[in-house]
Amino acid sequence: MMRTFIQLLGEDAPIFRRYVWMAVLYGLLSGLTIAALVPVLTRLLAGDAHGSALWLCVLLVGVVACWAWRRQVEKAGIGVGIVVLQGARHRIGDHVARLPIGWFTPENTARLNHAVSNGMMEIAQLPAHVFTPVFSGAVTPVVIVVVLFALQWQMGLIALLALPVFSAVFVIAARFGRRADETYHRNAARTSQRMIEFAQAQSVLRAFNGEGGGTRFLEQAIDRQRRSGRELILLSTASVVLNSWVVQAVLAALLMVAVVDIQARLGAGLEAGPVIGLVVALLLSNRFVEPLLDVAGYGEALRGARNQLEAVREILAISPLAEPEAPREPKNASVELRNVTFRYAADQPPLLQGIDLKVEPGSMVALVGASGSGKTTLMRLVARFFDVESGSVLVGGVDVRHMTGERLAGQISQIFQDTYLFQGTIAENIRIGRPDASDAELAEAIRQAGVERIVARMPDGLETVVGEGGARLSGGERQRISIARALIKDAPILLIDEATAALDAENQAAIAETLSRLRGKRTLIVIAHQLSTVAMADRIVVLDAGQIREEGSHDGLRAQDGLYARFLKQRQAAKGWHIAATP
Amino acid sequence: MLTLAPLAGMAQIAKIAINGAGAEGAQGGIWLIALASFACLFLGLALIAAGELAAHLADNRLTHGLRRALVERLSRVPLGWFSSRASGEVKQAMQDDIGTLHELTAHYYTTLGRAGGAILFSVVYMLVVDWRMAIASLLPFPFYYLIFGAAKKAISEERMTQFVTGQARINNAVIEFVNGIPVVKAFGVSGKAHGAYREAVDAFTKAFLSFTQPLVAPLANANAIIAPVTVLGVVLAFGTLFVSLGWIAPVDVLPFALIAPGISGPLMLLGFISHGVADGTAAAQRVQALLETERLEQPAPGTLQVPAGTEVRFENVGYAYDGQNAVLSSIDLTLAPGTVTAVVGASGAGKSTLARLLLRFFDPTEGRILLGGADLRLIETSQLYRSIGFVLQDVRLVNASVYDNIALGRPSASRQQVEAAAQAASIHERILALPRGYDSVIGEDAKLSGGEEQRICIARAVLLDPPVMVLDEATSAADAENEAAIQKALSRMARGRTLLVVAHRLDTIRHADRIVVMEDGAIREQGTHAQLLSAGGAYARLWQSGGYADAVQEAVAP
Fold this sequence. Notes:
CATH class of the largest domain in chain A: Mainly Alpha
Number of helices of chain B: 22
Strand order of the largest sheet of chain B: 6-7-8-3-9-10
Oligomer: heterodimer
Shape of chain B: elongated
Helix content of chain B: 55-70%
Strand content of chain A: 5-15%
């Protein structure tokens, strides 16, 4: 658990280590101060007021020292919390941004979401609220054990033996709850995901809620969360009971030993010194038990945090795309795939197999093929969303794995299917492409991408805030903004996924204009659905089942009566389609 | 309270040991006290455990009920409510805020009882033993409250709000960040997360700091004052003083040294839970606010209407976003049963709003929409959606099996019906090719293209078999191969239904029974393709500029 915590803190770990030492030292200091109680009480009970006052001064100095030191410990603890909230969240963000896109399944996304928001909050509270009492609570009793030995060795022995027994019970009790806890957190994360879905897909869910089918999934998730919550409660209550009963049993044993001894001595006749010692030992045994009870009481909080840390550890354990040690610079705007094979996971069939393709700088290639033929995957490999299984992808003559992520991203502009707009203004969303672009460049990109009309329609123009995922714009409008984003970046290689066969007229115009303007000036790779686009390409590559089947010019391929010829027929049929209520 | 018995017992034993040394009767007494103490202790512990268990179980039931109530409520608010909110906020309220309430319901009262009882018992016991010593021993505690109270005042309402909004911002930023990863990867500096996420994290840290900073020093002081060590020091200092003054016997200091430090624990616990109560109250207010969100107007009982027939009529319908920005005005339109009405126009002309009004995603701000003579607002929701189905341009599938997605609106449908719907939507074969067929889960092992997902949406609508259908740019998510399939599916579905089609490609709707051309939220012209072309108005210009004449030519003579 500590290891994960330190891993999470990364370079900030020394702050945490310093804090731990401070907390341990605090425990030691408290223990010693409590130990000073022994001479104070012994002398007091023996009637030596002067001696007692002297030791009392020592004790009071200890109290003041504890006070001052505790303040430092608290400050250090909050410092660690801040590091978690800021540094660790940044670290997770940076890590996740380097993971291959394939990792972002809904399940993983939900887990990440939960870990970063709720999980981090819980972990950040740990030092200030949990670690300080636990660390010092674990150290103080050890000091007291030593003192108990000096006062009455049997009690000291019991206390000493109780420490390992107690840790063992503590660990067992923690195991008890952990599995229930894991189930609960898994269910909670799933419910969170359902809630987000509930909000995002509300329109569909509501319309299809005729028989309660729409809210069924969320309700089931909530029910499951309740059931696992119940299980968790039962188990954690059991473990809390176990912990505190064991601690109290130790107290009982200590008391019994003291009672037996006192009786033995009382029977043996009056002897003030040892009896006083025993009485003091009795008092100390109470001081011994109390911090341990505190530790036991924090068991639940610790276990909860442990699960959060575990979730974070799993996320941090996913290996990101490797960055080269000696990065190389791309030489030109060419793109080449050499004998590329790719699959998402070892147990899945390959999505691409033995792909060889060379795109010269400034030329335009159109990728054509049925869905699932590998067009999008090929495009994503060029942008290094994933690394190939075998073979290599070269941009500017350099393997993408030998380039820094920044360098590669600088080479390539993308207009992809999944258009995502961030919460922010239209202008901000476009400037993501090049944050330092001038207003004139922004205006030009807006004009070229046909965003002008959207801007004109919006009450706040360019400063209109688009919602989460650009929710207040239509799909076509969102895509046009993403086109502007890619245009303003103006990289030497442009990857375009024409996305749909039926682009709305404005988008189609924007893409067509972009293509004809950049043709010959930039390297263009286009997943094409429009006949007009395909016809513009210098070369057409037809993919089928992850392999290149045909390659050549429009006229050449049409004459072959192969896949491409079939594609053309399909397109023409679609063009002639219309809808009518009567056949 | 019972759990404190051993401490009193110990004090008693000590007293006997020192005073009554030698007395034969004392021996039995000590054992009795010891045994009684532990009986009390374990009984107390058992009661605490039982109490906690009961409270937690009650809480689990309560939070569950609340979450269900929120789902129920939010299923009835206007859909516009959702589009003006990030989904993270909804999740925050349903999951996190209700989770915070847990503090209140499960911990507050049991802890209050337990800690309050322990403190009360301690104080009374000490007062009984020796009131002077008791007052001296309790001296540190008022100071604790003074400092603590001052610190609490430092948490202003404003800081609390900043803290909460910071938390919500983090939630949204994470969702954004994760969904936007492809964009981040393509444009962001590699290895560095997107700026918005970092900013949200930093802003939250700042809010958190300004929230906690003024509390750190006073809280540390307050905690130090009542730390057991401090209390012990105070007890012993006064004890020594009183003994030397001859006010009390040395052995009478013991009960105080035993009991007084034990007050700190419960007291700190009280402080801790009152902290939780503040959070819990704020969370409860947010949940309450959500539970009171305005619902889509529900028809008063007795005024419910059942549509007679499938004719759709817009009567002088207007809609203004936020009550000010008019998106639609004075729409009069009738969709005759069994006909196709197409709506065309530039983006922003109000086509999609018109379609969404018919689906009651919002209610019109002016006029009314009638289905079979009944006002949409007076038709029961489930009845409405049995009558009007839709396929929209943004494909929304839920994270469930393909089967469940198709059967979303009719969970009771038979396997054959679901498969028949899939066949009608030309997606049956594709589904069978998935790793687990119909049981493949969307986004997990069912990795489908946009067009394929769209066909699942069509299957979903087909299964509901509504007499009226709204198609909003339904083929726009398709690629080349899918487009043909979707077109086939839509043609099949269109037969015999009343259709409202929002289209951006004029050639697809040129055979519609009526074409409505919209501009700036109003109907500019309407008629058949031929009528509109010969009228030479807006439609004719659109047709010309789209170059459809050639395309149709091409299609006719390939």
